Amino acid sequence: MEAIREIVKVKNRQVIINLPDDFDAEEVEVIVLKTIENEIPQWHINEVRERTSEYLKNPDIALDFDEAIKDIENEL
Question: Number of folded domains in the chain?
Answer without folding.
Answer: 1
